[in-house]
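agent> fetching stored inputs for the 1,3-dihydroxyacetonephosphate docking request
agent> found them:
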Amino acid sequence: MATPIIVGNWKMHGLTSEANEIVSELLNYSNNHEIQIKTVLCPPFTQIAALKEKIKGSPFLLGAQDCHPSPQGAHTGDISAPMLKDVGADYVLLGHSERRRDHYETDELICEKAIAAQNSNLVPIVCIGETKEERAAKDHKFVMGIQIKGSLPQDFNGFVAYEPIWAIGTGVSAQKHEIAEIIEFIREELTEQFGERGKKIPILYGGSVKPSNIREILEIEELGGVLVGSVSIMPKDFLQLLEIAHDFIST
Ligand code: 13P
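agent> prediction call returned; pasting tokens
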């Protein structure tokens, strides 16, 4: 496995005081320890510019949680990829299940967003995953095959995050063998879709990742890292994830 990537999705959390508190703890740590893990923080839009200033010179990187497919225009309330780049983001989460659910995002739209992200030199992190019902019906691979084919543009140059919806925010992660099986499946699909390039696309796992389970998750072959929700706004626990991930640095 390559050195793991850790992405923190703050979701709709982070008033200025909270964001400052979280980042101060992270910086306090990084000032005293060498961080060799690629660590991406995805705060809400409102905090990106301020955090960019704060993390200057630190190993932390910034991402956003969504972008519009157009670079600008009459789209009230939306934020474009060039705007994200402008305020300091280098990554963007796309197609998170909460956006698919709350904003009826389709694979086609997510694909357009991924193209927009890449056009602005943002790394798209495209999320896929099945519901509890789809898994119970043993349709999960079929569903994810459709998501992979539909959400990733031909020249995709980002990460894929497997987040089973039933493991998000529940405190109960998918089991190691379940994750391993799906990561292998996603790798096959990516290789079929993109050839050699598909073998190198990092695949992350997300869904109740925490200090007590990250080690066994990172042991999974082919896994590129983790996408963390709740624990990403708990700096002490988040830093523990980083510490454990350091044991997996490839030399
Ligand atoms: P939790 O880590 O809170 O389960 O959230 C996962 C997630 O949705 C990250 O994008």
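agent> quick read of the result: The chain has one domain: 5-11+39-250.
agent> awaiting further instructions
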